[in-house]
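Quick one, probably user error.
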């Protein structure tokens, strides 16, 4: 919604207002403004449009997620590098249902930009392994599956990785 520079300016202004309220003796107002400034700092590191798109994807609402992502006009200027990674990762997830060639490019771009959580990186590599397997590139798919297994520290993707390995044996 706001540019990342505007968010920092707003956070600084609201923090200044909180300090002024503390000095004036209005402790309750100062605490409220301090918490409000923390929200702006949080939204600097986590883009609100990407968060809303993630919520839509959890409900399997792909058109709704696309609508939220389309509100980000210039991702290179408006987002930090990790946020750009998630922007392209979400686009790749949505395109993986229809256009796997384009989804592969977007997943590679997201991995190159970086994803903050190992679980998301493992999911992106798992999707890339599935695309490589679909395109009959068994060696690449095996390498990507091994990387995804290494990144999946909590075992959340264990069943999907095992299922893909079984499918690769049939190829």
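Nope, works fine. Designed sequence:
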């Amino acid at each position: 919604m706001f540019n990342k520079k505007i968010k920092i300016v707003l956070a600084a202004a609201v923090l200044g207002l909180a300090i002024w309220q503390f000095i004036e003796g209005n402790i309750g107002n100062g605490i409220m403004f301090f918490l409000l400034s923390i929200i702006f700092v949080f939204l600097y590191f986590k883009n609100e449009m990407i968060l809303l798109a993630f919520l839509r994807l959890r409900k399997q609402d792909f058109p709704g997620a696309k609508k939220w992502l389309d509100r980000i006009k210039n991702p290179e200027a408006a987002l930090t590098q990790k946020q750009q990674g998630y922007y392209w990762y979400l686009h790749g997830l949505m395109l993986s249902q229809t256009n796997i060639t384009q989804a592969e490019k977007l997943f590679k771009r997201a991995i190159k930009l970086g994803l903050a959580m190992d679980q998301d990186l493992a999911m992106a590599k798992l999707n890339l392994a599935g695309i490589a397997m679909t395109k009959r590139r068994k060696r690449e798919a095996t390498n990507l599956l091994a990387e995804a297994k290494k990144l999946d520290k909590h075992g959340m993707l264990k069943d999907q990785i095992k299922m893909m390995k079984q499918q690769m044996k049939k190829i």
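The domain at 47-170 is CATH 1.25.40.10 (Serine Threonine Protein Phosphatase 5, Tetratricopeptide repeat).
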